[in-house]
Amino acid sequence: MVPMIEAPIFIVGLNKSGTSLLYLMLSRHPALSAIRAFKRPKSSKNAGTTLNMEDHHIGEGQKIPDLIEKLRPASGSGRWACPEFLDRYRLTEAEAEPGDRESVSAAYERAMTNPDARLVEKSPPNTVRTRFLQALFPDATFIHIVRDPYANIAANAKKRDKWGSTDEQAVHWAAANGTYLEDSARLTRAMTIRYEALVARPDETLQAVCDFCGIERSAEMMVPVEQGLNEEMTALLSKDEIDGISEIISPRLFRAFGYRRKGSWRRLLPWPTVSRVRRSASPARGGKTSAP
User: Fold this and answer.
1) CA 20 to 30 Å from 283, out of 8, 34, 85, 162?
2) Taking the domain 9-266, which CATH number applies?
3) Which H/E stretch holds residue 35?
4) What is the reported pTM?
5) Helix (H) and strand (E) counts in the chain
6) 68-94 burial: b if 16+ Cβ within 10 Å, else e
7) Do the bridges between strand 118-122 and strand 278-279 make them parallel or antiparallel, or are there none, so unpaired?
8) What are residue 21's DSSP bridge partners?
9) pLDDT tens column, 190-249
10) How far apart are CA 263 and CA 135, in angstroms?
């Protein structure tokens, strides 16, 4: 009988939203196990930095060679939530087929750095697959991380080749986070944190994540956190690009995640402390934590 993965933790969020930083932190917890890296690229833009995951011998679950095809990367991997690619990546409970749970569980188990520990996994396209993963693993916990759209879009459009224009990445940001927001209403255990809070207050934010996941906070989780990247990324955008992003992303999404639209260089809303984060149920009994 194939052993089943129990109570996995899935980190979801847009590319360059902080998923790798959070994944690295959680992977260092002695009770958790990440996915091992299968290939080390010959060259990496992150080589020698904290966020080069291969330096830490961990990788994304979607890159497991024997994972079922519908969870593997497809074309449009840099804009998987854009309308022209979303149908290839979007999965709900309706797409769960007999044998999927056993197959995915076995692939994860073989790829874990420590098969005896609790799985923590990150693959950005899983942001639009949470309902599918919950159908396979009803006891799963989802940690969604969101980043200021202007900085996130600039990081994807300005720092990555062939990932599209700022307008295309704005559509991607809106579609990915909008889909997650809608799907989260059907998730039993889901939490949203902000990249900005993780960077500004890593101890406090990690404590909230550990509490939600039902694990003790470990000092081993802390890694160096680079400051000022949002300002650096946003400075790469022209006024026209900022205006374009503000027009593409709906006011509802800005409000849902606590960001302000920019028509000029306005200041962001203050980041909430953990005590101000809304909780719809006790994490010990299942529930959601979300940003106001």
Assistant:
1) 34
2) 3.40.50.300
3) strand 35-36
4) 0.87
5) 11, 9
6) eebbebeebbbbbbbeebbeebbbeee
7) unpaired
8) none
9) 999 999 999 999 999 999 999 999 999 999 999 989 999 999 999 999 999 999 999 999
10) 41
